[in-house]
Design goal:
Blueprint: E1 14-24, E2 31-38, H1 46-50, H2 53-63, H3 69-77, H4 89-105, H5 111-122
Antiparallel strand pairs: 1-2
Helix pairs in contact: 2-4, 2-5, 3-4, 4-5
């Protein structure tokens, strides 16, 4: 998620459509109405646009169906909301591991609860 300019996902320029339409957020998967998306077709909902680092990690992991934790971590670490030396990494690592593990087992219903628990525990890591 490179958000230096333009798209929060790939950095491509945004394009504005003549009319609004419903699109799926590329981060959380929620469906929302908008007239803007990047040239590559990515759309980011307002909730993800405004999310802090911890919330962005949670929303991304809960929506992800990936079983590749390194790939998920790299996508998240490309976001400006994830500081290089910030406390977000104490949550990012267990979040992507939990997500990959339960996706691999086909037990997506357990991801949200365990992600929330990991987030709570990560806040106590100095």
């Amino acid at each position: 998620m490179n958000n230096d300019t333009g798209c929060l996902i790939c950095g491509a320029d945004l394009k504005y459509l003549q009319e609004s339409r419903f699109m799926h957020c590329s981060i959380c998967g929620d469906k929302d109405e908008s007239n803007a998306q990047c040239q590559e077709g990515h759309f980011v909902c307002n909730s993800c646009h405004m999310a802090d680092g911890f919330e962005l990690i949670e929303r991304y992991c809960i929506a992800s169906d990936s079983d590749k934790p390194v790939e998920m971590a790299m996508n998240l670490m490309n976001s400006k909301r994830i500081k290089m030396h910030g406390p977000e990494h104490h949550f990012l690592v267990p979040a992507v591991l939990i997500t990959a593990y339960y996706n691999k087992l086909g037990q997506r219903d357990l991801i949200s609860r365990n992600i929330k628990q990991a987030r709570s525990r990560a806040k106590n890591v100095l």
